[in-house]
Write a structure and sequence with these properties.
Jelly Rolls; Arc Repressor Mutant, subunit A; about 270 residues; five-stranded mixed sheet; alpha+beta; 11 strands; 2 domains; 10 helices
Length: about 270
């Protein structure tokens, strides 16, 4: 098994080190196979484009656009890249991580997160890494600390309880149909519960309302289309389920902190 010290597999496009952190943008060729290996330093990997499958221990994770993965130091894993893939990696040196891990509950186990607030924080961090100035050390460390805190909180919430099967079915249906005009009653009838019970249990387990969840999924859908297609933003907004482009633009900026046009420019950057 190969153990990597500070380097990462793939071709490095950019790399900068500051505040005990190393930020690296890497690209991987289609159908690339990486055998079992580990990394000396803990790091986050944020998928900017493409897709790959990662095997760690007895588990497998599928990684796509806007997936954020946390790798503890010395975690063993292997990777298979299905398409050309671009990743943004944040490596943390031992001293920096030791200081952060003094706080109870800090994430220490392998974990992955799809979309949501973590993806938006990671995109802001990537944007900052592309525009380094005299304030960047402060901005970068602040954003990484926020990512660590949010990832730790999400991991604790996900690990603390298991949703009932019908609720998992409801969430899967929302994932698959998020761009459609759904009602709480329709979803509740599909899984065989009362709409009030669905609303209460959904918030209890997923920490947001059904409406908030659907809106977040629509923004994730739009992010994928913006990054991977040349469709006009007006068409993407309608395809994502928004009734007009101005409503879409307001929601997108409120959620991600940037306009759809800026997001497209960042994800197309090479």
């Amino acid at each position: 098994m190969k153990r990597l010290s500070g380097c990462l597999h793939g071709d490095v496009l950019r790399s900068v080190s500051l505040a005990g952190l190393t930020l690296t943008e890497t690209v991987y060729a289609p159908r690339l196979e990486l055998p079992v290996h580990s990394h000396e330093r803990a790091y986050f990997c944020f998928v900017l484009g493409g897709s790959f499958t990662e095997v760690y221990g007895k588990r497998t994770r599928s990684c796509h656009l806007s997936t954020l993965i946390f790798h503890p130091a010395d975690e063993t894993h292997s990777d298979h890249f299905h398409t050309g893939t671009r990743c943004f990696n944040v490596q943390m040196n031992a001293r920096w991580l030791e200081r952060v891990c003094e706080h109870p509950g800090t994430l220490k186990s392998a974990a992955d997160f799809r979309g949501g607030r973590l993806a938006h924080l990671a995109m802001r961090l990537y944007q900052e890494s592309c525009e380094i100035d005299e304030i960047s050390s402060l901005m970068v460390e602040g954003l990484v600390l926020e990512i660590v805190a949010e990832a730790s909180r999400c991991f604790i919430k996900e690990s603390s309880r298991t949703p009932p099967h019908w609720l998992k079915q409801a969430r899967q249906f929302l994932d698959e149909q998020c761009t459609k005009n759904l009602t709480l009653t329709v979803v509740a009838e599909l899984v065989g519960v009362h709409s009030t019970h669905l609303a209460r249990e959904f918030r209890r387990y997923y920490h947001r309302s059904v409406g908030e969840y659907v809106r977040a999924r629509r923004i994730e859908f739009a992010c994928h289309k913006i990054a991977t297609s040349d469709l006009p933003l007006s068409e993407i907004s309608l395809a994502a389920g928004f009734f007009d482009q101005s409503h879409f633009a307001r929601t997108f900026k409120l959620t991600t902190g940037m306009t759809p046009a800026v997001y497209r420019a960042i994800t197309r950057r090479r």
